[in-house]
Amino acid sequence: MDNAKIGLLTTLLLGIFILIGALLALLTKKKDKVVDFSIGLALGVMIMLSILDLLPEVIEHLGLRHIYIFILGTIIGYYLLKLLDKFIPDHDHNEEKNLSLKEKKENLIHIGIITSLAIMLHNIVEGMAVYTTILSDAKLGITMMLGIGFHNIPLGMVIASTFYQSNENFWKTLFIIGIVSLSTFLGGLVMFFLNLSVINALILGTFLSITLGMVIYITISELIPRIKESENKKISYVGIIIGCMILLISSLL
Question: In total, how many domains does the chain have?
């Protein structure tokens, strides 16, 4: 099997890690606690993803010469999700804890959708990166895939738990997760069909900057307010710590 086919197979397998995280969340009985834990996990993952992954990669690809692209891309990513808020089911972060069941479900749908959008964009870029790495060094690319895969597990948990809590349909949630999990494969397909062996550093840096802006928006506008409203704050805090540790370990790998 040539490296191009190995690259496609690897980007497809990368999505399995998201499915693993989803199944861990869906098969747990105490759904409310899983949601609160997953939101905390997401916050820890998003913070470390920004610091250990996205920011260093943006600096590496853009350099100080193109810092204006980094700033502009981050702003675009932030306000792109803010704009998408208008097309996503209404939600309201209320300081009161006695929200109706419908309001809680709307909040969870909202978090699930915008998190999925940001993760899919990020995973497409990651799929492109893994594919091109395998073309030059298959062993390095597979190692890179494992590192990325481990930090995709908690993201799968977050998306699955929020969507399931809002629709209470196992198969519908799994279908949504399946679509999200294919995003890395889509990145590999783009590189395969365009017959590209390398990604332009400027383009890659721009996409990563936009993703960083999206992650910042999710962290500030969605996850932190949700944790403030949580009835199981201790579980959320444990999730934050574990999310940070998972990303730290996967980055070291």
Answer: 1
